[in-house]
Structure formats: structure tokens, C-alpha cells
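Re: the 137-residue chain
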Amino acid sequence: MLNRLGKILVMLLAITLPTTDANSDANGDAVAVKIGDVFHRTMKHWNYSYTSLDTTKAGVACMRWQHIDRKFLDDGIFKAIGFSYSVAKEEAAIRIATQGCEEMARHYEVTDCSCEVVLVDDEVRVAPPQEVIDRLQ
């Protein structure tokens, strides 16, 4: 009887562990998509449309992970961004967008952030830290 109970517990553990990781990945993807939405909203704030820019393009934002909460994801904009478009190579598009983000952060004296890739072409590339994903659940 005890041996059977042990097998059941092992099976339950085996079933729940992959589900937890999958849920974490799904939540991380959902947060990443929301951050992509914030980037688009920030572009619109500055009267640009990221979606209308020619490829190869990149969008970079000065990420202040400690300040990202549900309200920011729903209504906020980034304090500094950079973008590039119509660039020959992805690596160059990211470098140009990152330089633009860093320049805007310096200009507006945004010091508590790091410029990170959010979008490449229309693909969300940002990887939110696990602590942010956990905080938003």
C-alpha cells in the first residue's frame, strides 16, 4: 500500500512540474507581448508608427523592470526608446536602435534603466525577468 502511494505521488509530481514550467513560459510570453504593446504606444506618443516602418527594423526600450506593473502595461509609456528601420542586417538594426535609446535616456536623464531589445521586425524579442513575471501574476 505504501509503495503504491509513493508511485502515485511521483506521478503527480511528474505531471505538475512540466505544467508549472509551461505556465511560467506562457506568462512570460504574455508579459513580453504587453511590453511590445507599450513600445507601440510609446511610438504613437512620439507620432511614429512602428508597424509602418520598413524592415529590417528594431525597437529598443529603456527598461525599468522594478517599475513595471499592471498599470504600466495597460497605460504607461517608456521614458526612452530607440528604433531603426530599413537597415540591411538585423545586428545593425539592433545596434542603431540601442544607440538611439541610450541617447534619449541621456537627453532625458533617465538613469535607472537599461536599453533592451523589445522588437525585431514585428517579432517580440524582450525577455522579462522571472521576478517581473511572478510579480504580475
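Strands lie at 58-63, 81-84, 114-120, 123-124.
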